[in-house]
Amino acid sequence: MQSFSMKELYVGQTVSGEFPVTEETGRAYAEISRDKNPLHLEEDYARATRFGRRIAHGMLLGGYISGMIGMELPGEGTIYMKQELTFLRPVYYGDRIRVEIVVRELQQEKKRAVLSTNCYNQNDEQVIEGMALVKPKEE
Q1: Stretch 37-57: mean pLDDT, rounded?
Q2: I need a labelling partner for 87 at 20 to 30 A (CA). Which of 24, 51, 65, 66 fits?
Q3: So what's the pLDDT on residue 49?
Q4: Pick from 135, 104, 136, 106: nearest CA to 117
Q5: Is 15 left (phi over 0), alpha (psi -120 to 50) or beta?
Q6: How far is CA 84 from CA 7, 110, 129, in A?
């Protein structure tokens, strides 16, 4: 676990992590979130959609992003203020997702950081484009 204060952060600072997207994580997320959309859970239903098979919940990946912000960059003590996500491609069960967090801007006067929060699949195709505004731990 890492933790960076505003004084320790710099533009371009990057962290990344990989996460498997499994049926088990999808079902657990469906239970926790109560999002039981058949597109995520029922193969017969999903087969008839434009995706051709079940897709993972987009917000499951949002949770991976949140975990990396809260535990790695900036890390423990970070206050999440805003998150924007654009879903570019579907994520399927069995995919392996790389989450990449990059410090894009430091707002020293407000003690805030703007982060890019992008996700890529195992083929290096971008599946999520995102931005977060956070307040790192106090010095």
Answers
A1: 97
A2: 24
A3: 97
A4: 104
A5: beta
A6: 25, 20, 8
pLDDT of residue 6: 87
Within 10 Å of residue 62's Cβ, how many Cβ atoms?
18
Three-state SS at 63? helix
Residue carrying structure tokens 């392996």 = 96
Residues facing 120 on adjacent strands: 98, 126
Are the C-beta atoms of 84 and 104 separated by less than 8 Å?
Answer: no
- Residues with Cβ within 8 Å of 68's Cβ and at least 6 positions away in sequence, in order, are 15, 17, 99, 101
Helices and strands (DSSP H and E) totals, the chain = 4, 5
User: How far apart (Å, rounded) are the C-alpha atoms in residues 115 and 92?
Assistant: 26
Q: In what order do the strands lie in the sheet with 14-20?
A: 14-20, 96-107, 112-120, 126-135, 79-87
- Collapsed DSSP state (helix, strand, coil) of residue 23: helix
Cis geometry, peptide bond prior to residue 90 (ω within 30 degrees of 0): no
What number is the average pLDDT over the span 84-100? 98
Please name the helix (run of DSSP H) or strand (run of DSSP E) that holds residue 69, with its range, or none: helix 58-71
